[in-house]
Amino acid sequence: MSLTEKGKISRIISVDTGGTFTDFLFFENGHLRSLKIPSTPADPAEAVLGGVNTLLGKTSDNYILLHGTTVSTNTVLERTGARVKLVTNSGFEDIIEIGRQNRPQLYELVGHRLPPLVSRDDRQGIQGRIGPNGEIIEQLDADDLRQLPQCLEDAESIAIVLLHSYANPEHEAQVEVSISSLNIPISMSAKLLPEYREYERTSTTVTNAYVAPKMLAYLTRLERESQAERVNLMGSNGGSLPVKRAALEPVHTLLSGPAGGVVGALSWSKRAGHDHIISFDMGGTSTDVSLCPGNPTHTTEFEIGGQAVAVPVIDIHTVGSGGGSLARIDPGGALRVGPQSAGADPGPICYGKGGEGVTVTDAHVWLGHLPTDGLLDGSTSLEREAIKPHLQHIATSLNCGLEEAAQGILKIADSTMERALRVISVEKGYDPADFSLVAFGGAGGLHAASLTERLGAAKAIVPPLPGLLSAYGILSADITREASKTVLIPSSRTQAQEDIDTIFLELEKAITNEMESEGIDRGNLTLKRWVEARYAGQSFELRVPGSSWISNFHALHEERYGYQHTGQSVLAVTLRSVASAPGPEFELNPLKECSTSPKNTFTTVFLDGQWTKVKRFERESLSPGYELSGPLVITEYSSTIWVPPDYDVIVDQWGNLHLYRVQ
């Protein structure tokens, strides 16, 4: 694949760290090179730096590094973060534990929740109070402030969350000054999330503090040893952010890699003429799905590892079903697949690294969907025979043949992923028939056809380099900065719009100044205004564009819930300003058409109860306009596509593969 460079950046490396592989795209002199190497979960930086050195060789200067990381995500999920101490108002130390009193297990008599990231003994209450309008009801106690450094000296990270600091940050600023001599990371809610709802603000700030030391160490090492001219991190909202901000506010990177996948999927599908898509990213450990009705959908109602995080993220639903998901027989004798994964080490049995649990990838290899020389252009040979004794154990337990057991594993994995796809589409009132399924990730192409049929989607699209699409999204993402403020202004208030415009101008001034300080030209910035609003008495908001926000809210409320109250006042709860600057600019060259039919070989696949020879194509040999009929296998460097019978494949001018079910 070749690219024509439009900007002045000559060399860029984009890296996406996954559970099994770390993916690289290297842009140099108008061309893209790709690389996949095994991840190093014990130290993710080893894989990143190793891949960078492989791509650059001895010329490691004058390049930009763009990175989607799982460090913050895994830190929360694995509970390996810092010891956090929380400073809050006296009497409100337990907000983070009380939460919303939701019942995660609705029908259990005694439910259970994961404990907070900060223990009860590490929550420090202080005297002082600010009211909801920003008025100071009680000043901070001077003795409390003097004693704070001693109380917090054994902390590894500190979170400051005081009541109503979104309306007046003065007390939080005083606390920050009083403990600044400790020289440890401080997360202050008034800077991180100046929005109301105490529990969400507290949980978000504590989560940020929990991952901050590990992310700071990781990014400091990465910036130093990579010798990159600039390092940017992929943010959970679909835009990239400078490394310094990512180190201070790592909570914005919790969906770093998956967000890059959504951006990349939408970018390729728009070139193919489809902007209503469902992104389907099936990797080694999990599957991430997201609905994009023209643009990525965002949410601030996000939870990870039992912790509420209220920063804006692309609305992504994740399930523990990937190529490395392990199959097992449960105590009741039923076949289960996932969420446990073989990961990068030892990985699936067919990788030959000592794995003993049968995975989804092993099932594909056994059935012939994934040829033994089909991984990474044949550079890694897969060991099919090593799968047999372990698959036999499952087959014996189910009283069936080896092929039937492998097919059962794939059907259960498909069912898990189908449920995830329905959560983000059917359960939100969208008809999958109006959307195309964009399948990517190392294993996405193996399940694209089956899930398109199960879901009832219009078709499936497999973009070029599907196993590295998250890295492509990271490469092409805009640089973004968001600022928000809770205002609680009813539309019925006199001069409500003037007050809102004034606050928007303040937010925009702050974020444009910050982005300018990071070296971004103000003339390249695009500003967007959003209002999160609701009717009086409601406990949830809808996010609408800032222009004509009242009429926009009425219309969206009717679309979402079937009714509107046009005569009722609308409450503007939170104002959100988003500034974006274009990332690296690329112009893709359409593929050249070729009148010669692509050459093919043959491979053996278990189909309709028997082993059958089917055609096998190398994706690089497919030119625009080709139409192929299944069953067939298409192999490439980063992924393999299985096209079952009754499916046709059409190649478009950009190299996308369109999979249609034959009517």
Provide an overview of this structure.
This protein has 663 residues and is an alpha+beta fold. Helix content is 30%, strand content 28%. An eight-stranded mixed β-sheet has the order 20-15-14-23-24-36-35-32, sandwiched between helices. The protein has a six-stranded mixed β-sheet with strand order 4-3-2-5-12-13, with helices on both faces. A four-stranded parallel β-sheet has the order 7-6-10-11, with helices on both faces. The longest helix is centred in the N-terminal third of the chain and has 29 residues, at 198-226. The protein is globular and about 80 Å long. The two termini are 33 Å apart. 48% of the residues are buried. Residues 1-7 have low confidence and may be disordered.
List the helices and strands and how they pair.
Blueprint: E1 3-5, E2 11-17, E3 21-28, E4 31-38, H1 44-56, E5 64-68, H2 71-78, E6 84-89, H3 95-98, E7 123-126, E8 129-130, E9 136-138, H4 142-152, E10 157-160, H5 170-179, E11 186-188, H6 189-192, H7 198-226, E12 230-234, E13 240-242, H8 243-248, H9 256-271, E14 276-282, E15 287-293, E16 298-299, E17 302-304, E18 307-309, E19 313-314, E20 317-319, E21 325-329, E22 335-341, H10 360-367, H11 388-398, H12 402-424, E23 436-440, H13 444-455, E24 459-462, H14 469-476, E25 479-490, H15 496-517, E26 526-535, E27 542-545, H16 549-561, E28 570-581, E29 586-588, E30 601-607, E31 610-618, E32 627-629, E33 632-635, E34 640-643, E35 647-651, E36 657-661
Parallel strand pairs: 2-5, 5-12, 6-7, 6-10, 10-11, 14-23, 23-24, 31-33
Antiparallel strand pairs: 1-29, 2-3, 3-4, 8-9, 12-13, 14-15, 15-20, 16-19, 17-18, 21-22, 24-36, 25-28, 26-27, 26-28, 30-31, 32-35, 33-34, 35-36
